[in-house]
Amino acid sequence: MATGALRRFCRCSCFCSENLYVARYRLHVRFRDEQQLRRDYGPILRSRGCVSPNDFQQLLEELEQEVERRQRMGQESAARKALIARSYHPARPDIYNSLQVPVEYSMSPGADLEGLLQQLETVSEEKRIYRLPVFTMSFCQALLEELEHFEQSDMPKGRPNTMNNYGVLLHEIGLDEPLVTPLRERFLQPLMALLYPDCGGGWLDSHRAFVVKYAPGQDRELGCHYDNAELTLNVALGKAFTGGALYFGGLFQAPSALAKPLEVEHKVGQGVLHRGGQLHGARSLGTGERWNLVVWLRASAVRNRLCPMCCRKPDLVDDEGFGDGFTREEPTVVDVCALT
Description:
- This protein has six helices and 18 strands.
- The chain is an alpha+beta fold.
- Strands 4-5-13-9-16-7-6 form a seven-stranded antiparallel beta sheet.
- It has helices at about 35-45, 55-85, 115, 135-150, 175-195, 300-305, and strands at about 10, 20, 25-30, 120-125, 130-135, 165-170, 205-215, 220-225, 230-240, 240-245, 245-250, 260-265, 270-275, 280, 285-290, 290-300, 315-320, 325.
């Protein structure tokens, strides 16, 4: 389902109050005011080291700054993208116009789930986690060269998300249209329609794509979380590294969701597919550098009914670009009953 050029995407207003990550205490919190924070999180914060008045005051200031950052994020990202488009000179311009979308079984006439499962690796049937080739080694190398060139430039850079401090937002450097959108529309949607029809896999109409970097002295691990997405693709790009395995628990709504986590090693050029609501994280990096492309895949037909972050009917706020994948209008051809 191609995205209409004039379609306006939104975010849910909960973006500025729900799921704020506090790295020091390894905790996602809801934040509205001091009284609510003390009431809802006082005991767990104390158990994780937030014990003195100074500790709590510092936490309050960090959360207030994060709320302000989120409120400005869309406009600041659009400004960075415009400046980069005017001033940045790519090291590998070929990757901006030469995507080779893999030819997969799911794109052929008569494709079905049984046949598709013979073409990819089932990492966990229970958790519905799969792995498949996405990029060639040479494309991964070329993309890494471009990303490192951008990282070393004097261009402004946004954080990939609230949990990762190092990496690149692909829409800001102009790689959404030539790389990620055709990847979603031509490759991932036919695949996801077969693997995850109940999660909106056949109705993916937006995405958020970013590259995360793990290295000594920078981010080394990723705490447990779930994604603001119906479905997620995570592709290992390189470089040479040890450690950093992904781990998966159950769906975030389930009790004891991390009782027996499943660990999954990275394979360069291959992508891991999972549901956005699957709890997951990354073990600590051992040595070297690890770069991964993460694509949050979104279906407005699903999220327009229930925001995955606040678990309520979304309160829509206009946003830049794809926003958080919500729309004010429903897709005209979706059988909503098929998504329940």
